[in-house]
Every structure is written in structure tokens, then in C-alpha cells.
Amino acid sequence: MYKKILMPVDVFEMDLSDKAIRHAVYLAGSEGEITLLNVLPNSNRSILRGFASDIKKFEDYMLRESSKKMDELQRLFDLPRKRMRNEVRFGNIRDEILAMSKSGDYDVIVIGSRQRGMSTHLLGSNAESILRYANIPTMVVR
After folding, report:
1. Are 137 and 102 in contact (CB under 8 A)?
2. Helices marked H in the chain
3. pTM assigned to the model
């Protein structure tokens, strides 16, 4: 199977990850490892310059909450903890996922997605954007 799997997750919308978790575990087989990645949006500091300390406190809070939820999410995986990693980043979802996939020597990206609807067809979803630009195999689980 695959040795290194990158699995972007939205810890605040866990229902997108349920089926994708089972697929990622299957693809990891008996030796592969899975890295869970949660990307949080960057705060626009230039607009809110006077509130920089509050923004930093908010980002720290979001980082702690995201890490806590990712630890909870790890319990859903039928893998030993030593084969699981967590990563939280700030930035554009697609750009951070693609950058991490290139820098971490990952073999595959497994990402959950909603059912295709009119809004995602016209606007494009994160999963579709990642699929379009990824340089490694990408599995989108609906």
C-alpha cells in the first residue's frame, strides 16, 4: 500500500472525514503512516492592525482547539498512534495542502468531500481544486 498518506481534515466539519478515514486506513495497510492536516484561515493583520494582540490570541486559541479536535479525530483511526501525525497550519487551504504534499514526500492525498451540487459545480470546492493541482495521486471520497 502507501507509506505516507496526507489527509486534510476540517475538524469543525467532521462529517466530511468519516468515509475518508476508512479509505486512508485501508491505503495505509500494515505499515503506512497518516498525517492529518488542518488548515486554518489567515487573519488579515493589515486591516486589523490595531487589534494585532487580539488576533494573535484568537489564532493561538484556534490552534489549541484544532489540535485538541485532531487528537480526538485520531481515535477514530484503527492505527497505532505512532503511525499518526497531526499538523495545523494557517493559510490558503489548497496552497498549504499542495505545499505540504510536495515537502513531505507523501505518496497520496486522501480528502473527504461533500456530494457535488450546483454550488460546488459552479464555484469549485477545495477538494476539486486540490485534485486539479496536485502532483501526487489524490483520492476524493464523497
Report:
1. no
2. 18-28, 52-74, 93-103, 118-123, 126-133
3. 0.85
> For 48-92, what is each residue's pLDDT tens digit?
555 667 777 888 898 999 999 998 888 888 899 999 999 999 999
Distances from the Cα of 44 to the Cα of 52, 56, 62, 74, 135, angstroms: 10, 11, 15, 31, 29
Which among 20, 1, 60 is positioned nearest to 9, based on CA atoms? 20
The whole-angstrom separation of Cα 77 and Cα 92 is 26
Is the CB of residue 111 less than 8 Å from the CB of residue 5?
no
pLDDT digits (tens, 9 = 90+) for 106-137: 999 999 876 655 444 433 478 888 989 999 99
- Report yes or no: 9 and 17 within 8 Å, Cβ to Cβ: yes
Q: Which residue has the cell 451540487?
A: 117
